[in-house]
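for the record, two folds in this file. i put them one after another cuz i was lazy. first one right below, seq on top, structure tokens after. the second one comes after a little note so u can tell where it starts
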Amino acid sequence: MLEQLHAISPFSDQPYPLVSWLLACLAVVLVGIAKSGFGGGVGIVAVPLFVLAAGSRDGLGALLPLLIAADIFSLGHHWKRWDGPNLRHLLPGSMLGIVAGSVVLWLLLGRPDLGLAMDGGGVQDLDEAARQSRAQTENGLKLAVGLICVAYVIGDYIRRRLKIDKPFQTGPVKGNLTGLAAGLVSTIGHAAGPITAIYLLGQKIDRRKFIGTAVIYYFIVNTVKLLPYLLLGLIHTGSLFQGLVLLPLVPVGTFLGAWLNRKLSEDIFRAIILLIVLITGIHFVLEPLL
């Protein structure tokens, strides 16, 4: 009986199940905090934690339903606090980004019949080439996002030192381009928080409106992502079971995040967001190089 329970337990196939449990629990709490309190920045840190816990394929698939659950909990805290014009500018491009990201994911995961084209050692060579290609593509995307994050923080520091306080002027073109990038990166790795943070924080919108806009935006984006994730086989019975077991930790994170937002001033909040963007940006820059 104990062996059967162990076999169906989440993370039982990992080398160190207890470590995987701890990493996954921490990741889910951070996701909840990100959705309600820190506008997505902390959520990026949660992605590699969950991937370490469950592996890249199962980690991405198991995390998406948890992200949506966190979005739903957070909507209760920030209902109707979003910025309508920003959503109208971001969402059309985001849908195109999700389509593009789904195609990239399909290529990164490899075609199911890829190894059938050759026999003997040729199959191994083809599979190895496919793995190297997927790794190079993923590293390239992470490097690009990381450079954008670091460049934004440096630019914001220079602007403040020069006392240039003119807010970033948005519009349909800039919004759709931002949405395209966010939809693409979010589909591939749930890591688009810095992109929307750069776009929204640059406008110097109110703190609560910033969070409310981020919450409703990612609820819509993540819900749309369910279809390609199901079609690509990233979400399956095992990943859903992992998510179900960890689901109670989502409201813990969202309530903690909402409490932090009520206790922090505008300046401290912005500093924390920028620090998180910088840390995650450096992480994405260094990871492909190490």
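(here's the note) second protein begins now
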Amino acid sequence: MNKSHIKRTLLLGAVVALAALATHPVAAQSASDDPCVAPALLEKQAVFAKEAGSPPSTPVSVPRTAALTSPLVQQLIVARFPELTRKQVRVRTFNSDYDFFRTRFSYSRFFLFRRMRYFVEVNPRLLSLSPPSDGVCAILGHELTHISSMSHGNRLRLFGLVRLASGKYTTVFERRADLEAIRRGFAPGLKAYRQWIYANIPAEKVARKKRDYFTPEEIDALLSRLKQDPALMDFWIRHVPLNEQQIMAAPGSGNFGKRRSSE
């Protein structure tokens, strides 16, 4: 076989391959691959409803909780957090009367300078209390936003988390994660989750939740302002609003320069 024939064969093969890719994209991700859109959400709602068949005082078993949550976390990483696909993100459980999700990292790996491992922790009581499936997706998105931030840059930045002992820093830390989750499309689910959690925790803990995280009303205010001025999101990431008044008082994007020059 001469060189010109080889070239023609290779060229023909390349054309056929490109045509196949155009018809059947290898890496294309359909909406059904995203666990937080229908019909995936409907399937998860059915699972949560089935798990909720046990008495509210009876938590779903620890292995069952992890088995239900782990695939959802991994699907979310693929669909909405591609920066975490090479990170070690695991699911484990914890117990609490008023928290259902939280994020941690491996302290031993941190101090031994080994490859970091991050944990999304889930309260086994969650699935026996009929949580909204879009709310579960959204709050997992919130927790993965924390992991995305933790895993970015030098690990010594994690020492800064000691400031979480301060109430005000905790509020800014959690509301900033809410903003990042809203940026990634989780706003409706965050609203559903907040409405659900207010009804499923001790009454004396609700005020703290409303202080540290955006309420449904505040999320509506954020979305209303963002619809008019999408650039506000970047401003709010730098200047996290602590209440609805601060959301509505934020300057338009045309005035950002004036705000910075006065600080």
